[in-house]
Amino acid sequence: MLAVIGLLGFGLLSKGSAKVAVGDPVPDKELPVLGGQGQGAVADYRGRWVLVNLWASWCVPCRQEAPALERFQRRYRERDLTVLGINVQDNSDDALAFLHSYPTTYPQLRSVGNERSAAFGSTGVPENFLVDPQGKLALIWRGPVDDRFLAERIVPIVEGRAG
Amino acid sequence: MRRAFLGAAALVVALAFAPPALAAAPQTTLTDVEDEVMCPICGTLLELSNSPQAEREKVFINRLIAQGKTKAEIKDALVAEYGKEVLALPEGSGFDLSAYLVPAIAFVAAAVALAFGVARWRRDGAPPGSQPPAAGGPSDEEAKRLDADLAKYDL
User: What is the rounded distance in angstroms from the CA atom of residue B42 to the CA atom of residue B77?
Assistant: First the structure.
């Protein structure tokens, strides 16, 4: 009986999501490039600010925030900042169709299933995580972003103006 | 006559062992697949899910069905796209193996305990607390009392 209870407890704990907080190292892993060759990771951009965007093609708010993220990328890519998309909980065909409808110039990675969402302690999509040049989480935003949010919450941190 | 019988028997045997490739493979259906896979985001069987993600998963399955994929191939493709959480049935390895092992072990343990109990009961005789059967017939006193009681119900 104890063994059964132990097994159940282990199962529950091993399937739980991680908890991440501002100041923690960003959960990172080599992932395949979406619609391309090779692998990529957040660590590839060490020394720059990275806005990690978890998204899925079936998610309506992801469609709404995609143009704002692209505008942000175009405006700040020369200033040591990049957006990094990570497609989660999706299938590749739908993800590529999404990028056809909402083209992005920033890099896109793909995570199979729920694994990266769990690593980020994610509760849904979209979610956004600002990572500082040292690879630590500077802001966690569990929801969609728009131009105003990016200007008022992300830019002050990146420019060192945040209080 | 005998030759005809042998010929018919040979035909029956040949048909019985004919390779199944001659028969058309049954077409997989969405219904056949969706009760064995999950909508990973919803945490429910795909057949019970109507979320946007579930609808896309159904479209994905239908696309593979249209390509003539078998159920096993479709499930493999689903795992490649959505991860192993997409399978409704636990895998036969790792921690998921316990889903099959624990009931089997419990069944074997119960069977062994029952066998030991029966063997002990048979070795020790009647269960404790029960009265042993009378060695012979009723005593004289009991016989008299029985006759008296029966006389009251003389029909």
Answer: 19
